[in-house]
Amino acid sequence: MSADDTMIYPVEFQVNGEDRTVQVRAADILLYTLRDKLGLTGSKSGCDNGDCGTCTVLVNNLPIKSCIMLTVEGGGMHITTIEGLKNSPTQQAFVHNQAFQCGYCTPGFIVNCEGLRIAHPNANKETIQLWLESNICRCTSYEEIHYAVKDIFKLNK
Fold first, then answer.
1. Which 3 state secondary structure label does DSSP give 107?
2. What angle do CA 120, 124, 127 make, to 5 degrees?
3. Left (φ > 0), alpha (ψ -120 to 50) or beta: where does 37 sit?
4. pTM metric for this prediction
5. What distance in Å separates the CA atoms of residue 129 and residue 134, rounded to the nearest whole number?
6. Is residue 142 helix, strand or coil?
7. What confidence tens digit (pLDDT) does each residue in 105-144 have?
8. How many C-alpha atoms does 46 have within 13 Å on its Cβ side?
9. Are 58 and 80 in contact (CB under 8 A)?
10. Please, what is the Cα angle at 41 between 52 and 101, to 5 degrees?
11. Which of 35, 99, 123, 157 has the least C-beta neighbours within 10 A?
């Protein structure tokens, strides 16, 4: 083990609109920093390899799977977790359409859809479908999720 493996680095970023500084190892993963050091447990660990999307956060308004991002990569960035989207129109669309079953995947879907709304405010059905492919629901409530997204973009159901 080299000395660099145990060194601690300060990382400054903005999380949900608040300036934060954390002390991390170079190998620390953003998901676990958010959960363990900052107490933001809304982002979930699902696959830990970037496939399922339960850990999705916004980094500078783009959806990123936090299980495959090093915390040190987030230095100087603006990070938004599901906690930062409380009562947002995107969250409200999911609630209104009951777009959840067990709820485990829901935070990742909401964050991803908020990123879609920001990046493509006039998204068409093809763009929406492409963005939704990055998240997995194991309870198969995709129909309600599609209704929620259509509400976000005011598309006809």
1. helix
2. 70
3. alpha
4. 0.92
5. 9
6. helix
7. 999 999 999 999 999 999 998 999 999 999 999 887 689 9
8. 23
9. yes
10. 55
11. 157
